[in-house]
Write a structure and sequence with these properties.
Blueprint (H helix, E strand, L loop, with lengths): L1 H31 L1
């Protein structure tokens, strides 16, 4: 049960990081080009 909770938490963190990284990359590309 604990492992499942940890996996769900990791998934949430990864999705949030993906969104933040995507936003930063988009900003960087907007500035670059």
């Amino acid at each position: 049960m604990l492992v499942v909770k940890c996996n769900k938490l990791i998934d949430k963190i990864q999705s949030v990081l993906d969104k933040k990284v995507g936003g930063i990359v988009r900003l960087f590309l907007d500035i670059s080009f």
